[in-house]
Amino acid sequence: MSTAAIMQPFAEPTPMKRILAAALFGLAIGGLCATGAFYAGILEFAPITLAWILLNRTVMGVAIGMSGLRLHWAWNGVVIGLVVGSVFSFYLFMNVPQPLPAINAIVNGLYGLIIEFFTTVVCKLPSLGAPRSLRAA
User: Fold this and answer.
1) What percent of the chain lies above the pLDDT cut of 90?
2) pLDDT tens digits for 71-114?
3) 123 near 29, Cβ under 8 Å?
4) pLDDT tens-digit profile of 56-68?
5) Which pTM value belongs to this model?
6) ∠ CA(102), CA(105), CA(106), 5° rounding?
7) Hey, what's the torsion of the CAs at 57, 62, 68, 73, to 10 degrees?
8) Which residue among 4, 18, 40, 51 has the highest number of C-beta atoms inside a 10 angstrom radius?
9) Cis peptide leading into 15, omega within 30 of 0?
10) DSSP secondary structure letter of residue 99
């Protein structure tokens, strides 16, 4: 049996690869978001705030990875980013003075777009809602 025959099941992107890649990119974006927020003095450092930011961005990545919406990859990232990120905006609305929650609500779409870009374009793991011809390419 050749090596190509053994590796053949791993050659095609699977849903789990996409979900894992998107979750890792979400965690990385969460780290960048938290670093920027704490360093700029926008948020005061607290372990629970750090955990909340990392969890929110990681869940955003998982939702993007699992998304089966039949949208262009860019719109998929923006829509899922806005929907999932709205939870973090509500948290900020309850705990932080204005206008940060409104700014965060808009920036969540950008974070979703970045996660989707690295998952779909850079890692070449197409959306689960993409037509089969795009998934096979």
Assistant:
1) 53
2) 899 999 999 999 998 887 777 777 777 787 788 888 999 999 99
3) no
4) 999 999 999 999 8
5) 0.82
6) 95
7) 50
8) 18
9) no
10) T
